[in-house]
Write a structure and sequence with these properties.
The chain has about 500 residues and is mostly helical. Helices cover about 70% and strands about 5% of the residues.
Length: about 500
C-alpha cells in the first residue's frame, strides 16, 4: 500500500490533471466543440486512472486492516458518495462539487507539502544551529580548561614569588638594621671628629692669640719697664683670652642666620610677648599700659644690645689689630670672631640697663608692687636676638615709632581693638623689623580717633604724677640696682597667688 502511494505521488498524475483542467478552462471559449470534448475525455481518462489507483489502494488498506476493518468508514462515506454520484439528477452540480472538492484536496495537499517542507527546513536549521552550539560549547570547555590550567600555573608562580619576596623583605630588613647601625657609628665618629677639629682649631687660635699677646708684651717691655695705661689695660680680662675664631664664616652663614633670626623674632612676638603680657595683666588691669610696657621693653632691648655690640666690636678690633696679618681685612676677622663667640656677650648687663631705662621712662605708669624683673626673660631674648642681628650684613633693626604718628600700612598692621578708619597711631604694640629701608616683619599698632590729643593729656598727667614721686637715682647720681623707693612700701600681694610667689623668687635671684 505504501508502495502504491509512492508510485501515485511520483507519477504526478494529479498535477497533470490539474494543469489540463487549467488549460481547458483558459481555452474553453476558443476551442471548438470537438476539442472541448476531446479535452474532457482526456481528463476523464486521467481521473479514471486516478480513481482506479485509489480504489486499489482502498482495497489494499481494507485488506491490511482485517476482515471487518473499515466497514464503518465504507458505510458512512464511500457508499453514500457512490450513490450520490450514480443516482444524482444534477450531474453538472455534482461535477462542480467534485471539482471543488478536488481543488480543495489539492490545495490541502499542497499546503501539507509546504508545511512539511518548511518543517523539515526548520528542523535542518535547528540541527545546524545545535551542531554549531555544540561546537562552540566544546571550544568554551577547551578555553575553560586552558584558563584553569593557566590559573593554577599563576597560583603556583605567585606562591613562589611571595615566598621569594618575603625572604627578600627579611633580608632587606636585616640590611637596613645593619646600615642604620653603621650610620649611627659613622655619625658618632663624625661628631667626635668635629669635636676634635673644633678643639684643635680652638687650640690653634688660642696659641695664635697668646703668641700675638706675648709679642706685644715683649715689645712693650722692651720699650719701657714702667707700667703704662696700655699695659694696665692689657692686664684686664680680654674677650679673646679663651675663645677662638674662624675667619670667613660670616659671609657664608649670613643668609641662614638672617632667616633664623627673623623666625626667632616672630616666635618672640607670638610666644614670649604673650607670656609677659599675661604675667603683667595679673598686676595691671589696663591692657594699653601692659602693651606699652612690652613695646618699650622691646625698643630699649634693641638700643641696649646695639650699644653692647658696638663696645664689644671695639674691644675685639683692638685686640685683633695687634696680631692681624694676611689678605683678609680686619673688619671681616672681627665679624667672624663675633659670630663665632656670641656667647661672650654679657646679656645680663643689657637686661639691667633696659630695666633701669624702663623705670625712669615717663610713658609708663605701674603699681608699686610691679618690678620689671618679672619680664626679664622677654628682655633677655630680645637682647640676644638684637645683638645677633647686628652681625648680619646689612644689620637688622626695629623701626622708630612715636605715639600720634600717621599709621603706615607698610610698617604696621592693626590690632584687633583698633579703629580701622582712624589715621593716627594711639600707641604701638610691637615694633616692625627693618633691613635698611625695607620692612622684613610688620609690627602692630593701635589706631584710634583723637590719638594725638589723648597722648598729650596722658603725657601731662603722667609727668605730674612722676614729679611728685621720689627720684629713682641714688645720692651719688648713679642708679641703684635695688627696687626704687616707690616699691619699698608694703606690697599689696595676695597670699597664695602662684604668680606672685614666682615673681618674689625671681626678684630674690636677681638681687
Amino acid at each position: 500500500m505504501a508502495e502504491s502511494l509512492r508510485r501515485l505521488t511520483h507519477k504526478e498524475t494529479c498535477r497533470v490533471l490539474q494543469e489540463k483542467l487549467e488549460r481547458w478552462h483558459k481555452d474553453y471559449h476558443i476551442n471548438s466543440c470537438d476539442q472541448n470534448l476531446t479535452r474532457c475525455c482526456e481528463i476523464m481518462e486521467l481521473n479514471s486512472m486516478i480513481q482506479g489507483q485509489l480504489f486499489t489502494i482502498l482495497n489494499q488498506t481494507c485488506q491490511e486492516g482485517g476482515h471487518y476493518a473499515g466497514v464503518e468508514i465504507i458505510k458512512s462515506r464511500l457508499l453514500p458518495w457512490l450513490g450520490s454520484c450514480f443516482s444524482s439528477p444534477a450531474p453538472g452540480r455534482s461535477f462542480e462539487t467534485t471539482s471543488s472538492l478536488l481543488q480543495e484536496s489539492f490545495e490541502k495537499d499542497r499546503m501539507l507539502r509546504e508545511l512539511a517542507n518548511s518543517r523539515s527546513h526548520d528542523i535542518q536549521q535547528l540541527e545546524k544551529e545545535l551542531n554549531a552550539t555544540r561546537l562552540e560549547l566544546s571550544f568554551v570547555k577547551q578555553d575553560l580548561a586552558e584558563a584553569q590550567s593557566a590559573l593554577e600555573d599563576t597560583k603556583a608562580k605567585s606562591a613562589t614569588t611571595l615566598l621569594a619576596a618575603e625572604d627578600e623583605i627579611v633580608q632587606l630588613k636585616a640590611d637596613l638594621k645593619a646600615s642604620q647601625a653603621k650610620e649611627e657609628c659613622a655619625l658618632i665618629n663624625l661628631e667626635r671628629m668635629n669635636e676634635y677639629e673644633q678643639k684643635l682649631q680652638t687650640l690653634k687660635d688660642e696659641i695664635a692669640v697668646l703668641g700675638a699677646q706675648k709679642s706685644v708684651l715683649q715689645r712693650k717691655l722692651a720699650r719701657s719697664r714702667s707700667p703704662s695705661p696700655i699695659s694696665a689695660r692689657s692686664r684686664s680680662p680680654s674677650p679673646l683670652s679663651k675663645r677662638s675664631f674662624s675667619p670667613g664664616r660670616a659671609r657664608l652663614t649670613n643668609a641662614s642666620r638672617h632667616a633664623c633670626l627673623v623666625e626667632r623674632f616672630s616666635d618672640i612676638y607670638s610666644q614670649e610677648r604673650l607670656n609677659a603680657q599675661t604675667l603683667l595683666r595679673s598686676y595691671i588691669d589696663d591692657l594699653e599700659m601692659v602693651q606699652r610696657i612690652i613695646y618699650i621693653a622691646a625698643v630699649e632691648s634693641f638700643q641696649a644690645a646695639k650699644r653692647a655690640f658696638r663696645q664689644f666690636k671695639i674691644r675685639v678690633r683692638k685686640t685683633l689689630s695687634l696680631s692681624h696679618s694676611g689678605c683678609e681685612s680686619l673688619e671681616d676677622m672681627v665679624m667672624d670672631y663675633i659670630i663665632r663667640q656670641e656667647d661672650l656677650y654679657d646679656v645680663q648687663s643689657s637686661v639691667s640697663e633696659v630695666i633701669r631705662a624702663m623705670n625712669i621712662n615717663p610713658k609708663i605708669s605701674f603699681p608699686p608692687e610691679v618690678d620689671f624683673i618679672m619680664i626679664s626673660g622677654l628682655i633677655r631674648e630680645l637682647c640676644r636676638v638684637a645683638f645677633s642681628m647686628q652681625t648680619l650684613d646689612p644689620p637688622l633693626d626695629i623701626s622708630f615709632g612715636t605715639d600720634g604718628e600717621l599709621f603706615s600700612e607698610y610698617k604696621y598692621r592693626h590690632s584687633y581693638d583698633s579703629e580701622f578708619t582712624a589715621p593716627l597711631v594711639a600707641y604701638h604694640v610691637w615694633p616692625a623689623l627693618m633691613e635698611e629701608d625695607s620692612v622684613i616683619v610688620k609690627g602692630e599698632a593701635v589706631t584710634r580717633r583723637g590719638a594725638l590729643w589723648s597722648h598729650r593729656s596722658r603725657s601731662r598727667s603722667r609727668s605730674r604724677s612722676r614729679s611728685r614721686s621720689p627720684s629713682p637715682l641714688s645720692r651719688s647720681g648713679g642708679y641703684s640696682r635695688h627696687v626704687p623707693a616707690r616699691s619699698r612700701s608694703p606690697s599689696p600681694l595676695r597670699n597664695g597667688s602662684p604668680s606672685k610667689w614666682a615673681y618674689s623668687e625671681l626678684r630674690r635671684s636677681w638681687l
